[in-house]
């Protein structure tokens, strides 16, 4: 579904849990530009990780 | 008419009922609250609060007994049960006064007496019919017993009697190794009694992760509490000096008292629920995740709804139903997101899935666990407590279960439930700082380990 | 050569240094760790751990003294200081053994002796020069005193001496009402001493929210600890029986001991830092948020870097620098996200901004606060503790500060820091469940109140 208007900050907030919001912020991803793939339009971690990020490199997972 | 007709009519003023009444009043609704006993219900008067007061007295006793280990010269001389009861009553009465004031200040009409559902939206109390645009059923639960096992309140007792005992029994058999049974076992042992727990299931607190059950049983054994798990009860006979408990197979145990703690049943009989056509199952009232029963405008909250029987679940149900009635759009919290604490010495706390449940849900390859031993945690060493933090996570996914054992770990479940309910990943938690030296550092260390960055742990 | 050349050469094995060494080794780097005293540094040997052991002994003493209030018959007979020290040493030694084993198991080369920076990437110990591709400075801090106030280790002492006292002083003046001063004041009072705190600033623990300072001062007063805030110290004279402390204005206080707790200075003098051209300010080493000094390949962590002097900040610095060196991209946590706990009776804990700082940052209209009194919290009533949870939030924005006072609230800061660091809003937290009856429910209630849904609180 296409969205003409970006979401309001309050709406975005409800659609993403705090750690996902924090991750988006750390990666410089604007949640209002994302379309949530979770139930009820919830923005998931995968949505954020899949979005173009100005701070490209994700912290690697190290063993 | 104004006195008998309400926007919301609540039957039962326990955790679920009073929370619903308070929130509904806050949202501007006119509320009637029917209670036959005291505002606050089981939790405040014969449940959470008095048991936790006993458990704290037990902690004080243990602390005095072991003071020498910390360089404190003190002697433990015994338990003054009337003193313990006075302390317990003091706590209950203070909170009761607070609650009573709160209910009054919000303008809630309290209707004293036993109510019965006499119409789809009508509750009759002492011959007077009260009506509500919405009706909320919140009649709670009672201590069950086993067929043929009669509670006499003297030798064979339930938690309700146990809370009012005026002396410390020399020996007790606790029938049932669930939360309530284990909590009383813990108290009585600290108070000096010989305690044996008899449980038919293969482990104590069987709803918890197997690791937690094993750790509690081990800690109990060290404290001198005998756990007879996997041992069905057969019968009990009252004698002149106490009670003789026969196990399946014929073995007998003698004790001064038998505490029957085999679970709590819903208090729903003879209240008109069936007559009004409310859908029920094995005595419980069926409700959806917004508390709605099958009857339009009739809701159910708390222990009468199948699921975890916990006060904070009752509060949450009550708030949710009030908001639902007021036309808001509240978010339900599923039972798995509800924190569970057993306030024994040591405590057991958890939220989310056990390892077994996670494997069942996602498959063994998709589940990862990490156990951080409190031996590496400075504050736990200072408290001289043992235990662990166990995390259950989806591989490359969120933490789906947190399980803790150790003195005072019940307080760590606040953080644990945020991680669970906010679907945190190890990588989200790992970079954050936990204050040193606290027990909550152990949660931090466990997430570091899960993220492959163990600090104060081998691995 | 292999023995003197490392990927990472760490100078100082306190919280910052050893955490860096452990994480670097975990990431596959060859690590040299120089230490002139014992692995673990201030925190383990003369800081966090032994003080918290004392504070726990103090709690045991208070609990025995007040046992009667809970119905437990016990008598408190005094403090056996050698016993307290044995307990304290037991805890320290156990953790020390664990740490030593950990460092060994990760294959870190420990270089015993005092090191000096003799080249941009070179540290010389006992005449041998060691080099590192990266060098990490982690030399920690020491107890400062005031000009003209000489520490004799007998009558005029620092925390280090205070930890080894073999008796309980009859009376003490504590110079400095910061965290360390307040913690010793709390211990000694529980152990039976007369305690006076002298502090030039207008309040105790001045870095905390004003409400927390006021609550601690009030609780201390009730316990018989005198706080002379806003009272500059003038001089101290040792006498035959003790020490006479003169305040500005001329008033004097006599006591058996004077504890000087006026802060800790960076241990950076005469270590070659200036000679090698490291940028410093008032003795501290300047580093960016990734621990980098102005010299390529030279990093600084822990108490030598300006900011909060806390062990867990040191751990976090150390881990971050190790990851930075290993080429990862770690996320720094700003100082405001670091939880702070004062382990007094009652405890004070916080994370994020004070109300004053929030108003300064966002303007008074944009800041909202809620204070939830522990009087409404069942578990706090059971513990008989008083205090509060105070939330500072941006209006329609995240919670930007959490402040707690009360016995055992230090453990709640784990949840509080998640809320702060994940930028939770009141309505993210409000629908979630806190276990009943816990103290962490008070955090839940405060967020309910902030979201306009107070349950167990008037409002
Ligand atoms: C020993 C013990 C310890 C416990 N410890 C904990 C704990 O630590 N933590 C925890 O979360 N939970 C604990 N619980 C469980 C907790 O008490 C319950 O989950 C909680 O009280 C359920 O709330 P409720 O509102 O559903 O029912 P209740 O609290 O049982 O309230 C029901 C109310 O309805 C009233 N009522 C019933 N029928 C009628 C009628 N016909 N007319 C008028 N009024 C009526 C009753 O008098 C009662 O006041 C404990 C329980 C027990 C027994
Ligand atoms: C009484 C007291 C109580 C405290 N309580 C707490 C608390 O509860 N919680 C908390 O978070 N923080 C607490 N702190 C602060 C905490 O101890 C410090 O923040 C922490 O230890 C700093 O770590 P660091 O690695 O920077 O330095 P340090 O721990 O001081 O370690 C520096 C190490 O470097 C070594 N060293 C120095 N110079 C050289 C040299 N030239 N060659 C070789 N080795 C050298 C030292 O021997 C030492 O081992 C407390 C401090 C004190 C004094």
From TrEMBL, chains B, C:
It catalyses: N(6)-[(R)-dihydrolipoyl]-L-lysyl-[protein] + NAD(+) = N(6)-[(R)-lipoyl]-L-lysyl-[protein] + NADH + H(+). The keyword Iron-sulfur does not apply. Binds 1 FAD per subunit. SUPFAM superfamilies: FAD/NAD(P)-binding domain, FAD/NAD-linked reductases, dimerisation (C-terminal) domain. Transmembrane segments: none annotated. It is found in: Cytoplasm. Its cofactor is FAD. Signal peptide: none annotated. It comes from the Bacteria. Its EC number is 1.8.1.4. Keywords: Cytoplasm, Disulfide bond, FAD, Flavoprotein, NAD, Oxidoreductase, Redox-active center. The keyword Cell division does not apply. Its main location: cytoplasm. Residues 338-446 form the Pyridine nucleotide-disulphide oxidoreductase dimerisation domain. Residues 6-318 form the FAD/NAD(P)-binding domain. The active site is a redox-active disulfide bond. Belongs to the class-I pyridine nucleotide-disulfide oxidoreductase family. This is Dihydrolipoyl dehydrogenase. It comes from Nocardioides fonticola. The gene is lpdA_2.
